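Notebook entry, structure prediction.
Reason for the run: the old model in the group folder had no record of what sequence produced it. Starting over properly, with the input documented here first.
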Amino acid sequence: MTNLSDYSRKRRFDKTPEPPPKPVQEAGNRFCIQRHSARRLHYDLRLEVGGVLKSWAVPKGPTLDPAEKRLAVHVEDHPIEYGDFEGTIPAGNYGAGSVLLWDRGTYELLGDASAEKQLERGDFKFKLHGEKLFGEFALVRTKRGKGNEWLLIKKKDFAAKTGYDSEDDLRSVSAGGAAADLSVVPGAAKSEMPKKLEPMMAFASSSLPTGPEWIYEVKWDGVRALAFIADGKVKLTGRSGRAMEAQYPELAAIAGQINAKEAVLDGEIVAFDANGVPSFAEIQPRISATGKSVSAVMRSNPVTYFAFDVLYLDGYDLRQVALLERKRLLASRMKPGTVMRTSEHFADGVQLLEAARAKGLEGVVAKNAASRYESKRSAMWVKVKIVSQQDFVVCGMTAGERDHFGSLALGIYENGELKYAGNVGSGFTEESLKRIAARLKPLAVKNHPFAEEPVVASRFGAKDLSATQWLKPQVVATVKFNHWTRDGHLRAPVFLGLRDDVSPEDCVREAEISAEDVTQAAPTKKEPLLPADKTEVILNVDGRALKFTNLNKVFYPAAEDGFTKRDVINYYDAVADLILPHIKDRPLSLRRYPNGIEGKAFFQKDAAEHFPEWLRIAPVQSEKKVINFVVADDRAALLYLANLACIDQNPWMSRVETLEHPDFMLMDLDPYHCGYDRIVEAAQLVRAKLEMLGLEGYAKTTGGDGMHIYVPLEPRYTYEQVRGFAEILARMVAAERPDLFTTPRTVAQREKGKVYYDYMQIREGSTISAPYVLRAYPGAPVATPLRWNEVTRGLSPAQFNIRNAVDRFARLGDLFAPVLNNPQKLEPAIAKLEKLLAPVAKK
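New structure, fully documented this time:
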């Protein structure tokens, strides 16, 4: 029996939506983390132990940064049902406030002691497989307080991430929002499930690539298989595209081990020898089994499917999602079972390689954590073999002193031509000789299949072609060997088995990829542009000589900040590829802060005479004169402006070529003596109205205390037309929620505690802070694009800043890309608006 009396005593279940305790049906290993906006914001970590959720309140939230130790206060046990709870606990109830299901998944207990024993001794070690959190953690009890204060510590492993902040990702992972969760995963594309795919392959290398961008897996000595799951059934296909599920009927249970209606997994079918080592020899009987023999070998040679990737989930193609994110999704959807396991990945490749060598494994595969899935051989995946092993085409049977044949003549494709690779005569048994000969004899042909006539050694050592029965090159064999000889033949080959999951044409000589090729192929985290030990430096940036000066000058002087001009320039260099598409071709109104954010700033619209000739200038006729605006189209221009102390960039809403026609409608929401939760509420209401009119809007923080919603448009409407539409929308939401919005432009007429909807910003010559720019406020906040499920209570613009923004953008990509590539027409929205307003007009 579990003790949930404290939980029940504190709650009135007729007054709160929280679930009452129910009898536990079966033990599990679930975990969840809930973001609880109560009297004080905190996160609740809950792990299933002994039929309840053991719970800790983590005030600052969990982190993936091993350098951060987070206080975790042990609280009362919660029922298992609480792991799905998300909602609002009404005022007057214990824990009143909103609860968001921030993360969930499964966990593995680390160490030999049981969970209860580890909790009793105050040292609980576990590995999380969540949608957001991943890797090894420890809960360690401290001597402070009443014995309820613990520390939540992230271990140094592949999932460790410096500067990680749980407040950077406020999306819900609730079951009802599963599709929405996938829709905001960077790279996920709405799509029907593919009928067939070719697997991604690794290049061979003699050296292991190292660095924080790499993760490492065991190279399983089995049969590669893609698993297509739909309607509760599993279809397995090998590298050749051939269906294999009839040979492995027990793997039909995979469908019950993945929490998805449709999915495509990538993995390896593995059989183990008596010592528990993956063995290709042990899987041989499964490969060749047919008909009634399948049941017999299924019992004698059981297999396990090791899943290491997910390519499709419930309506979303995930192949353009970063590998580590795909692995997190896979782990979060996996259920405990017998026939499928996740193929673990590790942060220390050297240690894994040594462990693999000690256990007699085939090798290790290094994968770039940011790699996308490509149906080809890619340098983003690199295999390092302990034992040289490869697939070859069987091209002939050479006579010998034993029955059936003495050896097999092998071929390998090079540049599209089949070349002789040598003979293999060891590794056979009497049974396998008979079985293989029976399979190969029907393929007998008169002439050899090679591009050039081979020289094949007979059993007497003489060069004798007549001793070989040539075959059609249709069967593939796996062979291990010491190395290649100078004449391109195998040294000391040993036969491991035949396989039919690989096409003969795929048997190519594996040229090793160089360390240089791996480095060039794999993206790495960008090093800061400016050195830390110089106050002045001249650098070549995209062919332009730029002089950077006064680099130690403090632009953000607060004690907790201390960010310098160097930091600002390095930031803009790091995110230039994101910012430039959004400010390209737009006139800029420069705001310069020569003495930092606390010094006197000034606007500069006209380009100065001393500006370099290569800097693009756009002359624009104003009412009184021509103004020469600067336009930043490239990295050099952006960094030149940063060196001028332009902390933020403020572009027009239109581009030089279509100056009178904005290419987005701006919804500018500013607080007037109210908290940011009211901005969030207002933004979601505006979004709902846009969707009702068939328009897509995209939100970003201003970096200040407001929020912008961009509605991308075809650049053919005037500023007056766009502003008029925005005004109607503003008056609609203000009429619907007069308690939330205030619209007077005159400050004195605005009502306090409400959101000011500023549609008057939409006018020619008006400029706004661009996405991804720094803002001149304490804490160095960044104007940050948001996913709509991040626009929730508790959101704060200050949580996105110079410290963590670059990592966020690297993880999520350009969330504002649709603003550039999704131009919309206003006419259909106007037609819908007219229908909505018609009944009102009649009244």
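Summary: The chain has 17 helices and 41 strands.
The old model has been moved to the deprecated folder.
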